[in-house]
């Protein structure tokens, strides 16, 4: 496989909302199976895949805080929500015959392994998909930040941010008909233009570690394979 594919090891960031599908809350099993089917096809060719999953299909810490909940406890609930999502993804992948491990940033030994960098790297080298849950393990940090952190720690070639839009725009394409699609931007341009690709902490980590970020529409069937296996220019890239 060496040299055949552009990226040997990637981290895929999935939001919880994507796992909810059209239901917008909870788990939409047909959607999870569809996404995992595409992930499995990529794993089968030998590309190493790690994932970070959000929990917004169950709870969002910032929104719960706005409703009067203590932010720390709200974020802790969000961490637990990501564990639920990680287990759902693991189940779907393993039913497809793909060996998978869930690692968490908080201790839940009876359910998943704790995150240990060397163990994570060992799993990847053995061809197992890794799913990182519970964010960074600390409140006030988003799962985007967790994705940037884990991608840097396990030395990924690229961070793939799976979204509901087909890439990066100079403004919200859902609100502005004249929004301009940006195929590729630099870190400095993204900062200068105030593009909301990830939160500030996540973006700073990627920039500091020179981690390329590809933003793409995961809901468009086949995009993941086109990007990683076929080498097509899907979505937008930040380098």
Could you explain the architecture of this structure?
- With 239 residues, the chain is α/β, with parallel strands linked by helices.
- It has a single domain (9-238), classed as Carbamate kinase (3-Layer(aba) Sandwich).
- The protein has nine helices and eleven strands.
- The strands form two sheets. Strands 4-3-5-2-1-6-10-11-9 form a nine-stranded mixed sheet, sandwiched between helices.
- Helix 6 packs parallel to helix 8 (200-208).
- The mean pLDDT is 94.
Strand and helix layout:
Layout: E1 9-14, H1 16-20, H2 29-44, E2 48-53, H3 61-66, H4 71-95, E3 100-104, E4 113-114, H5 117-125, E5 129-133, H6 143-153, E6 158-163, E7 168-169, E8 181-182, E9 184-185, H7 187-192, H8 200-208, E10 213-217, H9 223-228, E11 236-238
Parallel strand pairs: 1-2, 1-6, 2-5, 3-4, 3-5, 6-10, 9-11
Antiparallel strand pairs: 7-8, 10-11
Helix pairs in contact: 2-4, 6-8
């Amino acid at each position: 496989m060496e040299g055949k594919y552009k990226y040997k090891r990637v981290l895929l960031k999935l939001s919880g909302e994507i796992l909810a599908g059209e239901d917008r809350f909870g788990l939409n099993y047909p959607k999870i199976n569809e996404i995992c089917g595409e992930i499995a096809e990529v794993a089968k060719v030998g590309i190493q895949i790690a994932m970070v999953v959000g929990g917004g299909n169950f709870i969002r810490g910032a929104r719960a805080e706005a409703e009067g909940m203590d932010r720390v406890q709200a974020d802790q609930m969000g961490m637990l929500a990501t564990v639920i999502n990680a287990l759902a993804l693991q189940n779907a992948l393993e039913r497809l015959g793909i060996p998978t491990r869930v690692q968490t940033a908080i201790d839940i030994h009876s359910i998943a392994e704790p995150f240990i960098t060397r163990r994570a790297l060992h799993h990847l080298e053995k061809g197992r998909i890794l799913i990182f849950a519970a964010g960074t393990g600390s409140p006030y940090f988003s799962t985007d930040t967790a994705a940037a952190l884990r991608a840097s720690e396990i030395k990924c070639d690229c961070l793939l941010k799976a979204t509901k839009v087909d890439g990066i725009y100079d403004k919200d394409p859902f609100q502005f008909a004249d929004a301009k699609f940006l195929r590729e931007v630099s870190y400095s341009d993204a900062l200068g233009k105030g593009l909301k690709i990830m939160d500030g902490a996540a973006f700073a980590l990627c920039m500091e570690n020179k981690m390329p970020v590809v933003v793409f529409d995961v809901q468009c069937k086949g995009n993941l394979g086109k990007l990683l296996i076929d080498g097509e220019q899907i979505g937008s890239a930040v380098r």
